[in-house]
Amino acid sequence: MCSATGDLPPGRAPATRVDRVTFGRAPDPVWEARWVWLHRLRREFPGWIALFDPFASVWVAVRGRQGYVTGATAYELRDRLDAVRRSTLP
To answer: How many whole angstroms separate alpha carbon 52 and alpha carbon 34?
Structure first.
């Protein structure tokens, strides 16, 4: 802890980096997997915006004002987007 003048106690160095562990938040593997899936869906279907709604626990893909596809899992959303892609005319 710093003194009123801002001096550090002997043997203590100032913090030079900020990371999630410093603030008490360790990486969450579930959220990391969701980010990987989001990047994969966005790369595989560039015309669509892929999102995950954590409150409804649903995967959503949106294209413009008309296109809207949902899925309970990322696999299901990918399959539905692939079906939409196959059903549209070139």
So the answer is: 8
pTM, rounded to two decimals: 0.65
Question: Hey, what are 40's tokens?
Answer: 């994969």
Rounded CA-CA distance 43/54 in Å is: 21
Q: Sort residue 83 into left (φ over 0), alpha (ψ -120 to 50) or beta.
A: alpha
User: If we measure between CA atoms, which residue out of 82, 90, 89 comes closest to residue 48?
Assistant: 82
| pLDDT value of position 82 | 95
Is the separation of the CB atoms in 50 and 35 below 8 Å?
Answer: no
Note the CATH number of domain 29-87.
Answer: 3.30.2390
Dist. CA 88–CA 90, nearest whole Å: 6
- Give the integer Cα–Cα distance in Å for 46 and 19: 32
Output the CA torsion sign for 39, 51, 29, 57: negative
